[in-house]
Amino acid sequence: MTTPVPHDAAPRRRRRFAALQAVLLLPPLLFVLSTVPGVRPQQGYQFLLDGVLNNLAYECAAALCLLRAWRSPTGRTGSLLLGAGLAVYGSGNVAWTFVVRPMAEPPYPSVSDALFLSFYPLAFAALVLAAHRPGSRLAWSLWLDGVVAGLAVGAVAAAAVVDTILEAPVAGWAAVAVTTASPLLDLVLLVLLAALLSMHAWRPPLGLWLLAAGLVLFVVADLSYLYRTAMGTYVSGMLTDGVWILGVVLMGLAPGWPTVRSRLHLPRWALLAIPLLSTVMALGVLVADHVWHLHPLAVGLAAATVVAALGRLLLTFREVANLADSRELARTDEVTGLGNRRALYRAVEELEGARGASSVSLVLLDLDRFKEVNDSLGHHAGDELLRAVGGRLQQFGRENGTREVVRLGGDEFALLLPSGTAAAELLASGVHEVLRAPFTVESLQVRVRASAGIAVLPLEALDASTLLRRADVAMYHAKSRGAGTFTYDVEADEFASGDRLATAELVREAIEKRTLTLHYQPKVDTGTGAVSSVEALVRWHHPTRGLLFPDAFLPVVEGAGLMEEMTVAVLEQAMDQAREWLRAGDPLAVAVNLSASSLADPRLPHRVARLLADRDVPAHLLEIEITEDFLMADRERARVILDGLRRRGVRVAVDDYGTGYSSLAYLRQLPVDDLKLDKSFVTDMGSDPRALAIVRSTIMLAHSLGMRLVAEGVEDAETCRQLADAGCDVVQGWYYSKALPAAELEAWLARYRGTPVPAAPAPDAPAVPAVPAVPAVPAVPAVPVAQVAQVAQVAR
């Protein structure tokens, strides 16, 4: 049994830790101050300052690094290696002071030089471990940006000082090797450091900024010392010695900081300028070589920079071509060649800024008894019929002024028309006549009829999700009353009955009393199998109808204007549950979908921070999921709100990515951590190479922008394996678990963590869930596809 920790124990430990750090920082600061010009009474070596205080400063910096590394919850191995490297380097200075320097003829190289050089492999290992981030797969483009920048800086440094350093007179192969190794290892450090910063899109966490600043000062001081020594102008106690100590102190302070990205956000032109300026610098070195005949090392580094820049350019061309192909694939239905749901969303967005039309209509078609064709003639015949229907609808739409003809999926088609109700009804009647003629399928004559739903919105209130949802409701009413066209006034019906009014009041009461039910679906890391976060999905216990899922009550919530209040209630209840898990010693990050109305409030970051503080929940245990519609509506407002959330440590994810208009511009400009790929992308991965190509390209895009890719709707082992092989970071879906109440999720986690992480089976093996389904939770019916965009604001 764990012994209770006194309430004031943690603050006491923090105060002791801060005091110990202050003590360790005092000697380095005093020595740096002693090297400032004009502070010392006389120049030259002084035993108390350059012998005692200087060595004490080195060892204090190493002790500071090891102390912070030991208390750090993440990246401890790399930080300990860095601390060991600083300790070894400081030991080399101690050996020089007390062993080598007192000799009548100090040897070169000596044991102190061996200790100095031992710092580099430890520092390299620390940088490599700092580059490795669990659950993250880095794009080659990011690596190459850093390599280009590092090689260019190395070329300039080599041109400036290396020639003088390497030409200094030394005797013996060992002396030559040591003299050559130091500047070369410094240049390698610069290349690795630039690569590390580029992998974080030049926005690393604070700890990496301190490490980078310390390494840069260390390399500058080292090259300055080697250069002055070669020129015969070095004197102990110069400012170079102070810069050296300042560099190792900054490295000592690097461990233990949060791993969230820094607030610094480089504009696009700056990100492009880094490789461009680096290439120009390298070309400048090559040109200068024709005038001053630089050292071959500088010329070699400059040439390597140009080669790396060319490789980066070729890689960029390939990525752009792949993304262009992926965007085209993402908007095209593979069976009929028509546009798909994403194409429809894009067309609606383009109409929002159009002139000459006051209304926009959507005619949604569902083929009647299409399942009979599939069952009797096979899916191949069904696909042939869909292609024939799609071709006939496309020709008819082209002749009648439609803006877009799309296949939404299954046997659903839609026609978008920049006109009002009368034109839409005429179009629907024309479609009915067009489909009257029989189709030839497998040498048989097949007749098709369709149920049609019409939705009309004024241009100033145009919204793709609302338009599609209303047309879907109208279409279902048409099917319920027999085949044929049916126009349905959704707005007039929402509160036409006492049942809907009563339901709205019951939902309002549940929201106010915080009695909504939240179920949680685990998210699984594909690399480690760990579950460190869950997604909160809202449910509601109706007094007579029992547990209802979002598609049953969210239309009422939105119609009653309760969406913002409901979102706040879900957010608070999710935070309460996160606090319970934290107190139980098993912290889980909880992801919550926020509605567009909640995200319209510029005070949202402050309100979220206050809710977290009131519950004493760390910010990293909350993830905010938003839809593309909000991002596209007001990009500047979105940037301000999302920046405010991320500055407070809250992760931000784009939910249902790909169901709307997926603009590459907002991904580049807005602060986003995760892309959540919609389940429609992964459903057919095993049987459709085009679907797999889209998923892979989206994963590459996310990683190139420094984001994680989360895949939803993973329902079998083969899909899970394909996603992991493609580089997907996190998966969630019924393959692992459905959304569960908190208590049942805890039981599932106990079983899941008590067994080895299931490896995805070979393609011919049966899909076996990682954990048996929990029988106490009823099967969840799928939400109709046309309602996905509507209900994604709070739950699916």
Could you give the topology of this structure?
Layout: H1 9-34, H2 47-71, H3 76-100, H4 111-131, H5 140-166, H6 173-199, H7 206-231, H8 239-252, H9 268-292, H10 296-330, H11 341-352, E1 359-367, H12 370-377, H13 379-399, E2 404-409, E3 412-417, H14 421-434, E4 439-441, E5 444-446, E6 450-458, H15 464-480, E7 484-487, H16 490-494, H17 498-512, E8 517-525, E9 531-542, E10 546-548, H18 550-559, H19 563-583, E11 589-593, H20 596-599, H21 604-615, E12 622-627, H22 628-633, H23 635-647, E13 651-657, H24 664-669, E14 674-677, H25 679-682, H26 689-704, E15 708-711, H27 717-726, E16 730-731, H28 742-753, H29 788-791
Parallel strand pairs: 6-7, 9-11, 11-12, 12-13, 13-14, 14-15, 15-16
Antiparallel strand pairs: 1-3, 1-6, 2-3, 4-5, 8-9, 8-16, 9-10
Helix pairs in contact: 1-2, 1-8, 2-3, 2-8, 3-4, 4-6, 5-6, 5-7, 5-9, 5-10, 6-7, 7-8, 9-10, 10-26, 12-13, 21-23
